[in-house]
């Protein structure tokens, strides 16, 4: 489909454009990632306004997260989120097994550390959408391995103390103090 | 035909408020302010029986002797409040609903405008002209 490639290529150019025009020291202290995330934030705000124009009112947080996983993700990336998990205390994990913006990168470990640049915009997108719906959140994303294209986004709502650093190896090692209940939406 | 139209942000401050005739503006501002309480009551869980929870249109908020006030809440918690003249009995519910839908579309367009920062007052001329078309024509 021609229209998919449009945004993909534009997004790649956007990331390299931000990094090319970065000033001294900005790459190291993460200003570039912040710029990309803020771009996504504003886009997310506008998008959510348009998408929720005709939908019914949301009952609660879980309803909003399901909307993000199904309708929002489908409209932006033409597929749904593969797995949604929550601990019912404000942390949601969204897993996409074939993230559109990363499929064009080669399988293997070579470009793994650069993947985070390409996730910043999407994190901002989600954060902007949620903020417009009234939920303050922190969105982080990580890619566990390129061949599987598994991307998990951890969204912590309202209280940042719930966010714990997750090692990039696997989901089994995260949040050992709290159990994540699994509820997949298909 | 509305007498006063207001757009209120989710933090409950006005993004846009316009009334016709322009004297007695303060009275309309005050009416819109008091209607915010009614809006909050309708969308809270307590008012479960009062209004269909899945709908965005809230209906008649409260009537006064001269005016009727209607409300509408979007999913992003932005409230639209419309004050209509009570003597205008020809105005039906469907017409009010369609006026709110038009407001919502215009608001969405304003939101997607790259020159607009969310949270600022709405200064878009297109939005202004759409609201003018909805207000009573004063000759």
UniProtKB/TrEMBL annotation, chain A:
It holds the Pfam family TRAPP. The keyword Glycoprotein does not apply. It is found in: Endoplasmic reticulum; Golgi apparatus, cis-Golgi network. It comes from the Eukaryota. Keywords: Endoplasmic reticulum, Golgi apparatus, Neurogenesis. GO terms for cellular component: cis-Golgi network; endoplasmic reticulum; trans-Golgi network; TRAPP complex. One of its GO terms (biological process) is nervous system development. Belongs to the TRAPP small subunits family. BET3 subfamily. PANTHER family: TRAFFICKING PROTEIN PARTICLE COMPLEX SUBUNIT 6B. Component of a transport protein particle (TRAPP) complex that may function in specific stages of inter-organelle traffic. Specifically involved in the early development of neural circuitry, likely by controlling the frequency and amplitude of intracellular calcium transients implicated in the regulation of neuron differentiation and survival. Homodimer. Part of a TRAPP complex. Heterodimer with TRAPPC3. The heterodimer TRAPPC6B-TRAPPC3 interacts with TRAPPC1 likely providing a core for TRAPP complex formation. This is Trafficking protein particle complex subunit 6B. It comes from Equus asinus (Donkey). The lineage of its organism: Eukaryota, Metazoa, Chordata, Craniata, Vertebrata. The gene is TRAPPC6B.
Automatic annotation (TrEMBL), chain B:
It is found in: Cytoplasm, Perinuclear region; Endoplasmic reticulum; Golgi apparatus. GO terms for cellular component: cytosol; endoplasmic reticulum; Golgi apparatus; perinuclear region of cytoplasm; TRAPP complex. The keyword Phosphoprotein does not apply. It holds the Pfam family Sedlin_N. Keywords: Cytoplasm, Endoplasmic reticulum, ER-Golgi transport, Golgi apparatus, Transport. Its main location: cytoplasm. One of its GO terms (biological process) is endoplasmic reticulum to Golgi vesicle-mediated transport. It comes from the Eukaryota. The keyword Endoplasmic reticulum applies. Signal peptide: none annotated. Transmembrane segments: none annotated. InterPro entries: Longin-like_dom_sf, Sedlin, TRAPPC2L. PANTHER family: TRAFFICKING PROTEIN PARTICLE COMPLEX SUBUNIT 2. Belongs to the TRAPP small subunits family. Sedlin subfamily. This is Trafficking protein particle complex subunit 2-like protein.
